[in-house]
Design goal:
- By secondary structure, the chain is mostly helical.
- The chain has three helices and no strands.
- The protein has helices spanning 10-24, 30-33, 39-56.
- The N and C termini lie far apart (51 Å).
- The relative contact order is 0.16.
C-alpha cells in the first residue's frame, strides 16, 4: 500500500509525477515511479532527476 498520504492512491501518484515532469522538465522512468512508496522517496527521485537534468544541460557560451 502506498504511504504517501491518506487518500493518495497510485493514480494520484502518477498524476503528480506527470505534473512534476512537465513543470521541472525531467523524465522519471516508469521503473523508478513504481518504486516510490513515501513522500521522501518522491522527493529523492525528483532531486536526483533535476540534478541529472541540470548536469546534462548545455552550458551557455560567453
Amino acid at each position: 500500500m502506498l504511504k504517501l498520504d491518506p487518500g493518495v492512491d497510485s493514480l494520484a501518484l502518477l498524476e503528480l509525477v506527470e505534473t512534476l515532469q512537465r513543470r521541472l522538465a525531467i523524465v522519471v522512468p516508469d521503473e523508478v515511479t513504481i518504486r516510490i512508496r513515501t513522500v521522501a522517496d518522491l522527493q529523492n527521485v525528483v532531486a536526483r532527476m533535476v540534478a541529472a537534468a541540470l548536469s546534462s544541460a548545455p552550458t551557455p557560451r560567453t
